Amino acid sequence: MTAGMTLKNTILFLFLCLRPVAAKAASLVQVMVFIGDRHAKVLLLLDGTISDFESRSAPPMGTTPARASVLIRGAVLSPSLKTAYQSVPGGTQMDVAQAGIDALLFTSVSAGLQIVVEMQESRTLSVFRQGDKALLLDLRVPRAPPDDSLPDPEFLSSWMSGLSLLPQAASTPNLLPKIIVDAGHGGKDLGAVGKTGTQEKDIVLELARMVAKELRQKLGADVILTRDDDTFVPLVDRAAKANASNADLFISIHANAAPSPKLHGIETYYLDTASDESAARVAMRENAALFPVGGATEKVLADLAISGNTALSRRLAFQVHNAAIVGLSELYGQERIHDLGVKTALFYVLVSTRIPAILFEAPFLSNPNDEMMLRTPAFKSRLASSIVMGIQRYLEANSSTGFSSTTTIPGL
Fold this sequence. Notes:
The structure is a single chain. This protein is of the alpha/beta class. It has two domains: 27-141, Immunoglobulin-like; 178-398, Zn-dependent exopeptidases (Aminopeptidase). Helices cover 33% and strands 28% of the residues. The chain has eleven helices and 18 strands. It has helices spanning 3-18, 79-84, 153-163, 200-219, 235-244, 277-287, 296-302, 310-332, 348-351, 368-374, 377-398; strands at residues 27-35, 39-46, 53-58, 66-73, 76-77, 86-88, 91-98, 101-109, 112-119, 124-129, 134-140, 178-183, 222-225, 249-256, 266-271, 304-307, 339-345, 357-364. A hairpin with a 3-residue loop joins strand 1 and strand 2. Mean pLDDT is 79; it is low at 162-171, 289-307 and 401-412.
């Protein structure tokens, strides 16, 4: 080999080693829309640093609605949001249809990710950075006063920091499902108490342990319990544990209660505005450990319209709920297992998580017959197995990480 060839090879080697490596594109992983009176805010959460962005707005023209848009340079839409929202010509659409906000349209362009908010009337657009991984879009009808019930940038900054809303763990897919099982209440927070003294915190801890054990045995899952003893764990810490662990699912287990002892049955919730008065009541009871009724944080929850994981959480809720109803009905008969359905409400612990999350309400401790069933080992065992079956079916239908299980649960 000649000296000239050696020099050329050396230069080529140095060029390959020293040239800049393209940074991984930041992905938009969650969207939150806060609705107010002629005033709305949109929070865009990414899993990487936002290098640059530009924004613009346009009034309605003919059949084209008013629009406000932001281009996040170098960003992409995460696969989970592509799956969760509707595919339309030109991109992916997130329907809102509330208080003058029609929809959000996400389009990949050569420069990055363009987010367009379609509105029924023109609004002024202001964009704020929320740290280095999030943007807050402020959309207000001209001359309309600010809606003070909506979260301001300072509140959201401290909220995201305190709750670890952005992922802190590695974002690579888990080889096996990682699932957070949350036993509601605990310690000084007793939860509901039945006529014979059965405490919700004890029942749900036992159920959570049984669910965790079966998830490990039957699905090979990596399971994290938010509490494994009679300890009070604040709602913000439960959500933070889920987000920081890079988990795939969040399952919160509770036992129901109502002022009337006649109410009985099973219901399952995912995050959205309350589907009925009963759902709002249940959410108020479960949120009570964090803030009083009418507090500032409750106003923020009341104005949250849509979260980025709503569609996936809805699928998870239906799978778990249906498995529970079928499994328990086989053992006790349909007349004793009252199906109250899948509902939506604003539970703080679900608002704060950034992964598919549900809240399962086991039968009513305020109903004597339901309370006795909850004290029965056979009932708790079948309920735990049924919850695991629902999770398994969801994972097999929706998993994009390659984990799945062919194990079946005996008796179901």
